[in-house]
Amino acid sequence: MSEEVKVEFEPRIIGFTCNWCTYAAADLAGTARMKYPPNIRLIRQMCSGRVDPLFVLKVFLRGADGVFIGGCHPGECHYMTGNLSARRRYSMMKKLLESVGIDPKRMRMEWISASEGIKFSDTIKEFTAQIKELGPGPFRHIETGGKEQK
Amino acid sequence: MAKGDMYLAQASDEAILKRGEYGGAVTALLKFALDSGVVDAVLGVKKRDGNNRYDAVLDLITDPKKVIDCTGSLHCVSLNIARNVKEYLDGAKRMRIAVPCKPCDARAIIEIAKRKQINLDNLLLVGLNCTGTLPPVVAKAMLIGEYEVDPKEVVMEDIEGRTLIISLADGTKIANDLLELETKGYGRRDNCRRCNVNIPTMADIACGKWGVKEGEKKTFTEVCSDKGAEFIDNAIKTGVIKVEQPGKDAIAERKRKDREAIELSSKCEAEDLKELRELSLDDRLAYWLHLFDRCIKCFSCRDACPICYCKKCFLEPDRGYVKGGEVPPDRMFHLTRLAHDGDSCVNCGQCQDACPAEIPLTRLYLMLNIKLSQMFDYVSGMNIEQKPPLIAAKDEEASIDDINHFN
Ligand SMILES: Cc1cc2nc3c(=O)[nH]c(=O)nc-3n(C[C@H](O)[C@H](O)[C@H](O)COP(=O)(O)OP(=O)(O)OC[C@H]3O[C@@H](n4cnc5c(N)ncnc54)[C@H](O)[C@@H]3O)c2cc1C
Ligand code: SF4
Ligand code: SF4
Ligand code: SF4
Ligand code: FES
Asked: How many Å lie between the centroid of ligand 1 and the Cα of residue B47?
């Protein structure tokens, strides 16, 4: 029997970020050397309105612990209403997750403009801490090959 | 004649009056729609082979003389009227059709018309009040086991408040408590227990027995749209139906029965969803995953759902979400449908009826739909002008900053 090794849970978060705002904010945070947890992997979208609810579902089912969506502030979307549709879908998805039994706190959306590097790093810090508290996502074992982390 | 007008109506044709469930007005109006050229066809519901009320069929009628074959209210069926119009009648895009329909049928038609897959302008929706239908196989077992009758002897079913009344050919009536039957696994379809739209005011006219005196052969008819008003106006002028104004008491009675039916449905809803609502998130997920794993991926739920709208379905293997050849399928299968249809679901129960694995799909959809309905102030299938919430973002929302504005 091997000794049980206690490894701290490191969340795996997928971030869908708009090219024109949040993705640029992440860049800014990087070049300004602001610290934020390395737990988030960003996937660049041309607009938050491109984030299909199915992306979110697929990511959860493939083992993500949290999903983040970043878009331009209302009124600033390059495609006028992409972010407004995204907000509606986000609200729907929170209820869908809850109905089927996935904690809606595992999903978060924020408006972060290209100049808001600090807001980006703060949000990711906060969200990562939140996911750490919630623990591994319900489908994590699919990725890790076992349920040992639960 | 205008929206909101109400009548007690009766077919002028003796044969129709005799065979009609109540005043035969629905049949007389459908026949008139065909006779007068308002429509090209009537989509009626009739017993299979003229006598099998447990296997009813849809009939696309173009000969006015045949409309009379569809009299009577068949309670032991759940025909998928909306999906049939969309799929097999080309969404009524090339044909004008009069469709007798229950509230769930009318709502599904309207909801899919919003996605331009049915042309509502070509339809005349003749709504029928409804407080429930029964699954045919369960109904037959119930008639034998609880009513102790031969199902073939039954000539009429009727739901009156909490009672399910069966009439036999010799005039005998047998009544049983509906909710008691349902605790034994009989009674209405699972979704119907929780259905809270009983008068189809979203149709062009709404017809029913509520507000009609016991034993009277009349159909209580409410005009619900301008199209309906013009149609009824012509029908009365032509003399195909005789009408009188319902008294205040009749109108009040109808209202009271509707209210009672809604109260009963919320009681059933609270009962049916209580357990699910009280489960912890982890247990709720385990509950659904366990049920999803019964799925044999027959696609029946998708094929039955009148709302499922994708021209190229995301559940097909080439879309990259659900791998081909895997049973039970990836959970994306169920969650994709839920994400696509949750806001527009009309609780018609077609998905659950079709599911060979008996997954209680309507409970999941209803649970989500209730939340979305409150959140977006949107009741599916009630108003063609109201866009489904996920595609209804308005320019004004650009001045609302709160990310949780809807939550
Ligand atoms: C399942 C069901 C439940 C009902 N429950 C109530 C109720 O609780 N309260 C109330 O006030 N009224 C209810 N009604 C309406 C009522 O029974 C009569 O249909 C209505 O009063 C019209 O009577 P009529 O004599 O004019 O109809 P008829 O002239 O006899 O015409 C009946 C019409 O109903 C259609 N039809 C029959 N079965 C179905 C079906 N399963 N789905 C769709 N269309 C069908 C036929 O195509 C036909 O056009 C219900 C009807 C149905 C079908
Ligand atoms: S869902 Fe409602 S309208 Fe449809 S059959 Fe059931 S009770 Fe009638
Ligand atoms: S999800 Fe089921 S209950 Fe809802 S509209 Fe589709 S078939 Fe009807
Ligand atoms: S009808 Fe039932 S068994 Fe068939 S695909 Fe849908 S959920 Fe699976
Ligand atoms: S362009 Fe950034 S959210 Fe639409």
From this structure: 13
Q: Which residues contact B256 (CB under 8 A, 6 or more apart)?
A: none
pTM reported for the whole predicted model? 0.96
User: How many of the other CB atoms lie within 10 Å of CB of B220?
Assistant: 25
Q: Give A75-79's long-range contacts (Cβ < 8 A, gap of 24+).
A: A75/B398, A75/B399, A76/A21, A76/A113, A77/A47, A77/A48, A77/A49, A77/B398, A78/A20, A78/A47, A79/A47, A79/A49
Is B375 in the A-facing interface, judged by CB distances under 8 Å?
A: yes
- What sign results for the dihedral spanned by CA atoms A116, A120, A121, A123? positive
Which residue's CA is the nearest one to ligand 1's atom 37? B73
pLDDT, tens only, B361-398: 999 999 999 999 999 999 999 999 999 999 999 999 99
Q: Which helix (H) or strand (E) holds A107?
A: strand A107-111
- Which of A84, A93, A110 is opposite residue B393, by nearest beta carbon? A84
Q: How is the beta sheet containing A107-111 ordered, strand by strand?
A: A40-45, A13-18, A66-71, A107-111
Distance of CA A15 to the CA centre of its chain: 4
Choose among B163, B144, B145: nearest CA to B154.
Answer: B144
Q: ipTM surpassing 0.90, yes or no?
A: yes
